[in-house]
Amino acid sequence: MNTIWIVLPILIVLMFQLGIELDRQAFAGVFRRPAAVVAGLAGQLLVLPLIAFGVALAFRLPPVWFMGLMLIACCPGGSSSNVFSMLAKGDVALSVTLTALSSVITLFTIPVVMGFAARFVSVHTEAAIELPAGKLLMQNIVLLFLPMAAGALFRHWRPDAARRVHALLGHVAFPALMLLAAVFFVQYASAILENLGTLGLAAGALILLAMGAGSLLARMFRLGRAARRTIVIEVGMQNAAQAIAIAASPLIFDNGEMAVPAIVYALLMNVILLVYLKLLPKYSGGTVAD
Hints:
mainly alpha, globular, Na+/H+ antiporter like fold, 79% helix
């Protein structure tokens, strides 16, 4: 079973849904709260890949999983982060702004980061991993930018219909992502179960360190509690569907095993963030990363 044909429609739907959320207000947030936007983007685009690199080295991940962990770290924020920000009583407008900006910026940063990771792996191991940067850029434009732009135009020209479609997609997006994770889990069950300890610890460490880094950045920029919570979620929650699409794409890496870290990450990410939401009311004084 070629799982890429499951990944692609799910990713397109997720990006179309994100596009429907976008309006002038989403990008106007850059000017209304520049410090929060800078803190969030720095966490996502700079700090998170560095953390992933350190975690991959610390756990001595094999080349294919080293690349997989780096891949999930340099993807944009997931569209579900907007829902988690709302549940956490965070700054939802900031969440939408960060998700939108990171989705556009990573069109160009993913080839750079993954190109570095591929060269590092090739030099320090016997694995020769090549990255077709041009094909990666084109695939990201087709699967991310165009559906997102289509969603934004749909909202602009048919606002009432767009609201109804967005509500419908909101109910199916998360189950679709979990279906995708389940399909990959079944396909690579033996490899995942044999290495669940290492992969689970590495993915869990990445998520927790990313959330901690997001909280630290927000405090360094002296942001309010709502913005802090949003940045913690945005830095800790990445677009796993995109990572899977790049890893499994026959145009890019064509390696389903490289998607395994993203699968483990997607499962742990939701569990950890649900625990985070559960802890927030108990630590309203600020002793938990919020």
